[in-house]
Amino acid sequence: MRELDEWRKFIKSKYPNIHIVYSAEESGNVYYVTNDVGGDYFLERYILDFTDGVEYFNTLESAAEYVKKLTGKDVMTEADIEAALNEQGDKKLENDDDAFYSFNKFKVLEDDVP
């Protein structure tokens, strides 16, 4: 799964001086990428997709604050967040068969289209 790189190649072939900045996500394939290295257009670097909706975070710290409010656990690292969400998911699954939590970081790619 990739973002629409064929589309970008076509546009760049017609307008070689243009730079297309993108963010692409596909939750079903756990695919989250952007070529916005500096975060000038797409600030979000983390995503929490869960039963109650989707939340985006610019920093790990803001994600940790949200997860602390959600779970009551002090978290600091990506591993801490995932562990707290797994525990929270296990608790919710006891009462709700559809409960899920998916925490991911956007992969930042250098623009590879000439």
Write up this protein.
It is a single chain. The chain has one domain. It has 3 helices and 6 strands, in the order H-E-E-E-E-H-H-E-E. The protein has helices at about 5-15, 60-70, 80-95, and strands at about 25, 30-35, 45-50, 55, 100-105, 105-110. The chain has a 3-stranded mixed β-sheet, with no helix packed on it. The protein has a 3-stranded antiparallel β-sheet with strand order 4-3-5. A hairpin with a 2-residue loop joins strand 3 and strand 4. Helix 2 (about 60-70) runs parallel beside helix 3.
Largest sheet: 3 strands, mixed
Count of discrete structural domains: 1
CA-based gyration radius: 17 Å
Q: How many strand elements?
A: 6
Strand order, sheet with most strands: 1-2-6
Strand content bin: 15-25%
Separation of the first and last Cα atoms:
20 Å
Query: Uncertain spans, ≥5 residues at pLDDT below 50?
Result: none
Mean pLDDT equals: 88
What kind of oligomer do you see?
single chain
Number of helices: 3
Helix proportion = 25-40%
* Secondary structural class: alpha+beta
Q: What is the string of helix and strand elements?
A: HEEEEHHEE
